[in-house]
Amino acid sequence: MNNQLCDYCVNETKKASFSFENGQGQIKYICKPCFKSSFWGRWLKNNHIHLTALDSKDVRRYNLPLDHKYSLISIEYTGSLLDGGGSACENCGKLIVNIATVRTEENKIYHIGTDCAETLSFTDHNDFWKVREAQARHAKLMGYARKVKKAQAEGVKVTSEVQEGTTTILFNGVWQYRVKTDIFNRYFKI
Length: 190
Description:
The chain is α+β, with helices and mostly antiparallel strands. It folds into three domains: 1-56, no CATH class; 70-136, no CATH class; 148-187, no CATH class. The longest helix is centred in the C-terminal third of the chain and has 28 residues, at 126-153. A hairpin with a 5-residue loop joins strand 1 and strand 2 (27-30). It has five helices and eleven strands, in the order E-E-H-H-E-E-E-E-E-E-H-H-E-E-E-H.
């Protein structure tokens, strides 16, 4: 049970969501709002600080060994489960569409969900940030896809144009979004 308070809150101290070791070997605690603030998020990332989640993610390790270090190979969105995309996480067994491929120090390969990947101990601290960035990119693209679907439901004429590996999405002939064509094919239905 996490009872630690954020070391960086200014007004009202909140419950910490993450811990990290600062440059002097001390364990510090930070809450999500402070972490998301432009200064702290950039500082932690730029200094390659590894964060450990506290109660924000279930850190049970089901199938992957606890005493291994992992390296991130790739992260891929496989498409909607309704369209036949996705698979089962090799760590927890849940259905996943955002698949992180990781390798152990013994060169064993695992395909796991990004939530499970976020809880692993990586050999390179940048891998943690790559997982977080992939999750944010997926959330952003899903938001775009929801807006396109809503516009279609409201009777807006939604079209797309492909040019040199990018697809432009138009609402009533006006440019709205531009994404890579392979991403367009996985996220959007126009």
